[in-house]
Amino acid sequence: MSSKEPLVTDEEWAEMTEGEQIEAILSSRVSAARLQRLEKEGSPAIRQACAEHMADVRKNVEQLKPHIEARVRELYEGKYQQEEQALLQLIQLIQSQQQTPQKSDSASEFCRKLESGIVSIATEAASTDEEMVVLYHSPAGEILEVDYLGFIDPDVISIIGHDSGNNSTVVLANVQTVQLIVKRIKPLDKDEKPRRRRIGFIGDVSKGIKIEGSAVFAGGTEMKAEGTVTHNPQES
Hints:
7-stranded mixed beta sheet, alpha+beta, 2 domains, 3-stranded antiparallel beta sheet, single chain, 6 helices, 236 residues
């Protein structure tokens, strides 16, 4: 029922033809969350492939059930007692494949969790006169320094920052793929004050994002970086 090949990433999926996407679905290379979306939003051919895949999963589960149930009956008769719990867990795992995948955090909830974690790290960094920098590594290997974080529910995180050439950059990423790196850096010069860095949490950006110099506009309104994190509380 499962494939040894890795799941298809968002970037790979975007570049696939419909035929390649159907092949990925039928070979179990599509995540449960993507499969759930495709069953509702995909083309007729894609939805048909999803239906065939789920039918195959249910068929395999039904074929396995009698063997597992027979094994469990043996366990309850006193044989192989040490394996009893493991087999019961296996039954639960197989049955869970027939259930709707659990809903992951919404983008807004995920963004709130990011804010909580970053604020905590920033507070610790300030207490030791360290700078803090938040980085995003794109799938292509590019590194962005993050200035603002926003969201578009249900599943898109907006990352606004600048690249190594100081070019303003906006990334829209699926909530399940976002990984940020938070670094605490000591100044090279002991007498040098930590640079004032800010991470703005600007909320819902579903009405659009616009960057003009150092100003960021979401839905036509200039963002004031409400909830900003700063690394040097001694500065006003």
